[in-house]
Fold each of these.
Amino acid sequence: EEIGFLDETSKDERTLGRSAGRSLKGICAMKKQVFIHGHRLSALGLLTVDGMMAVSVIEGSFMTVKFKTFIEEDVVTTLMHPISSVLVMDNAKIHHGDGVADLIREAG
């Protein structure tokens, strides 16, 4: 039995454009520079008790087709016991894309 956590994140020129921030008490929150200018990078990863088992970084955003490809090529082949495994995802829109649930169900 395995448990895997799947999540994605994106970074672009708006990433650090926040109106509020966190810092230690008595120290002002500061932003020194923009992460990247003009490009959007997205990362998708599978974390298990053994560590980060699969990662995909792309330019742009993950859409349903790219997400399904990651499930097929990385997640299903990485989990050693797909029939008794549990895959935990948040409520992101791409997780509800056409065929995503069927793809995961077919794997086990």
Note: The two ends are 12 Å apart (CA to CA).
Amino acid sequence: KMENKVVEEKEVDMITLITPYKMGNFLLCYRVVLAPLIRQRSYGNIPQSHAILYYSQRTTKGGLLIGEATVISESGIGYKDVHGIWTKEQVEAWKPIVNAIHAKGGIFFFSQIWHAGRGSNKDFQPNEQDPVSCTDKLLIPQIRPDGLDDEHFTSPRRLTTNEIPQFVNEFRLAAKNAIEAGFDGVEIHKANGYLIDQFVKDQINDRNDKYGGS
């Protein structure tokens, strides 16, 4: 005869999306975050005033917004009309957008900084030069979110060991510019096959120097 065993379920505290969260120096009123969404409406890579309405419509007191991926330098452009933050003009264009969000009260606004690396082509590069990467392997096109597969990439130029610190510095300067523009913090885009991700992925990074994959 088998004895009946009663398994007591340990009570688990339920954490809801509207539970406050302490993130470093920031106290969020809830746990829903606006993720970065590239809209390609920054004509000439200059943030436009219509972004004030876009972000304001998604702003709630005590929340966190992460701005759309913002390019750190001219060589980092991978798409047409994306935000930039490497020039004084771009920094000044961001300020009224950030100020408008903060004016709604208790809102935290982060900038996501980004470099496309080999996820680009000559059309977006200064002087139609080859895009840069950790490798010289061509990026193979895949289906885009809109269902099309007509993206064309240019074979990248492999960065030299001495060039790489320049790009590290560009990220540093972009972060500094973001804070000058009034952002509360900075997120570094390291996913989706862009420049930093190219260095991290051992299927892509075929270097044999100190920046090589393993």
Note: Residues 143 and 149 are 5 Å apart (CA to CA).
Amino acid sequence: MFKKILPIAVAGFILTGCADNKAQEKTLLDSVIKVHDKVMMDDGMVMKNKMLLKGIASKDSAAAVKDSADFYSKLLGNADDSMMTWMNKFNPDFTGKSHSEAMDYLHTQKQQITKISLQLDSAITASNNYIKKAK
């Protein structure tokens, strides 16, 4: 009797463990995607501010104004480039990877996209402040 129950119990524990692992991976992936989605919404503000900065630079012939507008435009461009690089490298396919490898990868990706989000926020805030002063 014990020999019949043991394999069933072991199989049950394994299946439960796998389900928990997949749930953990999905939860972490969802949190990465949530930050990504916020970053993508910020991308519209990046493009808007770059256009406003270009307009400010073209309307004012002072070198200091052009230099400042270029500085903030490059700040926005660098943040946008970081986001695009991350998106091109991100791969949510964990086929053939262990749970530990998948979780390590997702933790690293969350750190990276969070850093990019902060970079974008900083660039947007700085450029917004400059645009308000320049108008």
Note: Residues 9-16 have pLDDT under 50 and may be disordered.
